[in-house]
Design brief:
304 residues; alpha+beta; 6 helices; 19% helix
């Protein structure tokens, strides 16, 4: 039997195994074509699988392609964090601070990895800052698609909006964690108003509130991907990146660095924590970073 391609499974945005968001990292992907990567991602059947390839520019760490079971992503947060930590562990640099660049479809992604506590922590600069997109749906329609009453949508001055930092999300503020826990997603209703990312995919739902389970967290969130069937994601870096736009619009952070911890995955039994940092100057967002821990839970070889 020929030797397989080495892969690792990481739980990302957590310091605990069997929590956070699982990720497959195929670290020997050179020679695979797009169809083969898509088939392997479908075989793993995780929310995303990352494929590590030689970089186009020798000074960069690697080229990374990211696939869901159904399509390739231009960018995603938990694959970036997990891959950055996997590459650091492979290089046996776990005790050292490392800064390097990953080449993703969205562009160059600058990453920094450090050991914090008992596990590695990686953060990356957003390759694209969030931008608002037009959304025609009423808050009543959004509420109905989530199985909620209209009065449960919104808090303070926060309202439903659509943002993208490479991947679009409809950000939906809700009253509190009890309302967030009662969501019953209506896939067909969501498809009637959510802007399409492609012929088969529409913008996902990112539901958030200011009430949290963890006392040190700033927001509680859930992320639901429409589809056949729809599914929930336990930790979503690209959604947190888009959510930075909603924070800027509704909370208007003061100039300087603002740091927010976002909890996600609580309702799924896979608690996660995402760190979002915003650099604000003259009232404008000039840079942002997503960070989190990741821990290896499995490794092996795939014969494909």
């Amino acid at each position: 039997m020929r030797s397989g391609r080495k892969y690792f499974i990481y739980d990302v945005f957590t310091e605990d195994r069997l929590a956070g968001n699982p990720l497959a990292v195929v670290v020997e992907a050179n020679g695979l074509n797009t169809a083969s990567m898509q088939a392997i991602a479908r075989e793993f059947n995780l929310s995303e699988t990352a494929f590590v390839l030689p970089p186009k520019t020798p000074t960069h760490k690697a080229k990374v392609r990211i696939f869901t079971p159904d399509y390739e992503m231009p960018f995603a947060g938990h694959p970036t964090v997990g891959t950055a930590i996997a590459l650091t562990e492979m290089a046996q640099d776990s005790d050292l601070a490392g800064i390097f660049v990953l080449e993703e479809n969205i562009g160059l992604v600058r990453c920094a990895v450090n050991k914090i506590g008992n596990s590695l922590f990686a953060e990356f600069d957003l390759p694209k800052l969030p931008e608002p997109l037009p959304l025609a749906a009423s808050s009543d329609a959004v509420a109905a698609a989530l199985g909620l009453s209209p009065h449960e949508i919104g808090f303070e001055n926060h309202r439903v909006s659509l943002w993208s930092a490479g991947v679009p999300y409809i950000t939906v503020p809700v009253a509190d964690t009890k309302v967030a826990a009662r969501i019953r997603f209506d896939n067909e209703a969501w498809f009637t108003f959510s802007p399409r990312k492609s012929d088969s995919a529409v913008a996902s739902a990112y539901i958030y509130c200011r009430e949290t389970v963890g006392h040190d967290n700033a927001f509680h969130a859930r992320m639901i991907v429409p589809g056949s069937p729809s599914y929930e994601d336990p930790a979503t870096g690209s959604a947190a990146a888009a959510f930075a736009g909603a924070i800027m619009q509704f909370d208007k952070p003061t100039d300087g660095v603002s740091r927010f911890w976002i909890e996600q995955g609580i309702e799924m039994g896979r608690p996660s924590k995402i760190r979002l940092e915003l650099d604000v100057a003259a009232g404008n967002l000039v840079a942002a970073r997503i960070g989190g821990h990741a821990v290896r839970v499995a490794e092996g070889a795939i014969f494909a």
